[in-house]
C-alpha cells in the first residue's frame, strides 16, 4: 500500500524514526499534565479520613506511574510506617478497600484543580494533528479520572480514543494496552508512536513494537530518563512541531 506523504518518518534534530508514523499514543500523567498536586490533594484527603499522617509531594512522585492501586498500596505502607506503633502494626491490605473508596471520592472532587499542562503540550498535539496522525490517550490512571481531566484541560477533542488503566486486563508496562489501542486506532504498532514520560511507557512500547519517545520532564519513578531504552528524548511535545 502506498503510504500517504503526510505520514513521513520522523527526523527531529538527533532523532530518527525510520518508519512512517500514522498515529500517536500519548501518556497522560507526567507527559501532558503535571498531576502531582492532584495526587497529593486526593491522597492527603484519603489519609486524613483514615486518621493517618499526611504525605509530601516529593514522597509521592517516585510512586506514580503504575496505576492507582499500586500508588495507594505504597502510600498506605508509607503512612502506616510513620504512625504510632499500634497503627503501624496494621496491615495495609486491611485498609485498602476503605482507602480506595475515600481516594476516589477525593480525586473526583478535586480532579484538575491542582494540576497544570506542561509547556508545549497544545502545540505538540496540534502539530501531530496537522501531520494527519490519529491520536489516542493511554494512561494507567483510571478512565473515570482521565476523561474529566482531559476535558478540564481542554485536551479531550484531540483524542479519538481514551483508555485508562482499567480499560484492559493489564496495564503498562505490559504491551497489551498498546496493542489494543493500536487495534482501536486501526494502525500497526510499527506505525504508531508512543509518547510518554516513564520506563513503563518505553517497555510497553518496545514489547508491542511501537517506536517510542519520552519527554525529559515527568516522573519516571525518580530515575533519570536518559537510562531508559527509547528512540529519543523530547524537551517538550512542541518539538514535534519541527519539520
Ligand atoms: O496514574 C498513573 O499511575 C500514571 O498514569 P500515566 O500512565 O498517565 O503516567
Ligand atoms: Mg506517565
Automatic annotation (TrEMBL):
InterPro entries cross-referenced by the UniProt entry: HAD-like_hydrolase_sf, HAD-like_sf, HAD-SF_hydro_IA, HAD_2, HAD_sf, PGP-like_dom2, PGPase_prok
List of catalytic residues: 27
EC number, UniProt record: 3.1.3.18
Catalysis performed (reactions): 2-phosphoglycolate + H2O = glycolate + phosphate
Enzyme class: hydrolase
Family matches, as Gene3D superfamilies: HAD superfamily/HAD-like (3.40.50.1000), Putative phosphatase, domain 2 (1.10.150.240)
Pathway the protein acts in: Organic acid metabolism; glycolate biosynthesis; glycolate from 2-phosphoglycolate: step 1/1
Protein name, as recorded: Phosphoglycolate phosphatase
Binding positions for Mg(2+) per the UniProt entry: 27, 29, 197
Alphabetical list of Pfam families matching this protein: HAD_2 (PF13419)
Keywords annotated in UniProt: Carbohydrate metabolism, Hydrolase, Magnesium, Metal-binding
GO molecular function: phosphoglycolate phosphatase activity
Family: Belongs to the HAD-like hydrolase superfamily. CbbY/CbbZ/Gph/YieH family.
Cofactor or coenzyme needed: Mg(2+)
Its biological purpose: Specifically catalyzes the dephosphorylation of 2-phosphoglycolate. Is involved in the dissimilation of the intracellular 2-phosphoglycolate formed during the DNA repair of 3'-phosphoglycolate ends, a major class of DNA lesions induced by oxidative stress.
Amino acid at each position: 500500500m502506498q503510504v500517504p506523504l503526510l505520514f513521513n518518518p520522523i527526523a527531529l534534530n538527533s532523532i530518527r524514526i525510520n518508519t512512517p508514523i500514522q498515529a500517536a499514543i500519548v501518556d497522560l500523567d507526567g507527559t501532558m499534565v503535571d498531576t502531582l498536586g492532584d495526587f497529593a490533594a486526593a491522597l492527603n484527603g484519603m489519609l486524613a479520613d483514615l486518621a493517618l499522617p499526611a504525605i509530601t509531594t516529593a514522597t509521592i512522585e517516585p510512586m506514580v506511574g503504575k496505576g492507582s492501586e499500586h500508588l495507594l498500596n505504597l502510600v498506605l505502607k508509607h503512612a502506616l510506617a510513620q504512625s504510632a506503633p499500634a497503627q503501624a502494626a496494621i496491615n495495609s491490605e486491611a485498609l485498602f478497600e476503605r482507602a480506595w473508596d475515600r481516594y476516589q471520592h477525593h480525586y473526583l472532587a478535586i480532579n484538575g484543580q491542582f494540576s497544570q499542562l506542561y509547556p508545549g503540550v497544545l502545540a505538540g498535539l496540534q502539530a501531530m494533528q496537522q501531520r494527519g496522525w490519529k491520536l489516542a490517550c493511554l494512561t494507567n490512571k483510571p478512565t473515570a479520572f482521565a476523561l474529566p481531566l482531559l476535558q478540564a484541560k481542554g485536551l479531550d477533542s484531540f483524542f479519538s480514543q481514551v483508555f485508562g488503566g482499567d480499560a484492559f486486563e493489564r496495564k503498562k508496562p505490559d504491551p497489551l494496552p498498546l496493542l489494543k489501542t493500536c487495534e482501536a486506532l486501526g494502525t500497526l504498532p510499527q506505525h504508531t508512536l508512543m509518547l510518554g514520560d516513564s520506563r513503563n511507557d518505553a517497555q510497553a512500547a518496545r514489547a508491542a513494537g511501537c517506536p517510542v519517545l519520552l519527554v525529559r520532564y515527568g516522573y519516571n519513578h525518580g530515575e533519570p530518563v536518559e537510562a531508559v531504552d527509547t528512540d529519543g528524548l523530547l524537551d517538550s511535545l512542541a518539538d514535534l512541531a519541527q519539520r
